[in-house]
Design goal:
Layout: H1 25-59, H2 63-84, H3 99-106, H4 125-129, H5 138-148, E1 160-162, H6 165-179, H7 195-202, H8 218-221, E2 226-228, H9 232-237
Antiparallel strand pairs: 1-2
Length: 238
């Protein structure tokens, strides 16, 4: 069985946007299995690595660095979901890194984001009572990730605003989009290799951490919020 087996989700519901007339049912199903494997190898597996990097940054106070791998994680998962519905994603002008556009397009075919509300886990509820939990609307969160993860922000062109809830909202988005296609564990070949990888995958991650995982106190695990100012005033005055 593949590490990222999709058969338990019913690959037969994958939409083919090619003419399969004249092919047997088994041949059409084989096409779908192969397309599933391509989607997994091209988008799901790389998104797992990006997700690990994003959580590493978030848990180590690398606030600005968090947003690029977070954007890459969500972008790949959205493209995988769109492809699963037979929607081409190669139009860079329309999609590219534009995860809000992709999310709105996905709503035409799937309710995975429409039904999602980014509410805090009971262990994180104090963030909401302290006004440190952002909007529960997934599109609002995606807009922030798209803006602050923009490639042009590598040089801090726009600045960023990071809150601990950014990590936990990313966890919810990833779980919703990823589990819509596969049920596999995160990074199945790596997650049990070292304690550090387990820590960055699972700490305060109540969507993916096994029941046996011992979480730290939220306040020991996460960095505080903060912002990084934009360099635009400096560029404009030069």
């Amino acid at each position: 069985m593949l590490d990222y087996d999709t058969r338990n989700l019913g690959y037969r519901r994958l939409k083919l946007n090619v003419d399969t007339e004249g092919y047997s049912r088994e041949e059409r199903n084989e096409f779908k299995r192969n397309i599933n494997n391509i989607i997994v190898d091209t988008f799901i597996k790389p998104s797992d690595s990006d997700y690990l990097i994003a959580r590493f940054c978030g848990l180590n106070s690398l606030r600005r660095a968090f947003f690029w791998p977070a954007l890459q994680t969500i972008e790949k998962l959205l493209k995988a979901n769109l492809l699963f519905h037979g929607v081409p994603v190669k139009d860079n002008k329309k999609y590219g890194h534009k995860i809000v556009n992709m999310a709105n397009k996905l709503k035409d075919f799937d309710s995975v984001l429409s039904n999602l509300k980014l509410t805090p886990h009971k262990s994180h509820i104090e963030l909401k009572s302290s006004n440190l939990w952002k909007s529960e609307n997934p599109i609002d969160f995606l807009k922030e990730i798209e803006d602050w993860g923009d490639p042009n922000n590598r040089y801090n062109l726009f600045g960023i605003e990071f809150e601990p809830s950014s990590i936990f909202m990313l966890d919810q988005i990833v779980f919703a989009l990823r589990s819509n296609i596969v049920k596999a564990k995160l990074l199945p070949k790596l997650e049990d290799k070292t304690e550090s990888i387990r820590y960055y995958l699972y700490e305060q991650n109540f969507r993916y951490a096994p029941a046996s995982y011992k979480h730290q106190s939220m306040y020991n695990a996460i960095c505080g919020g903060g912002s990084v100012p934009t360099i635009m005033p400096i560029l404009n005055s030069a």
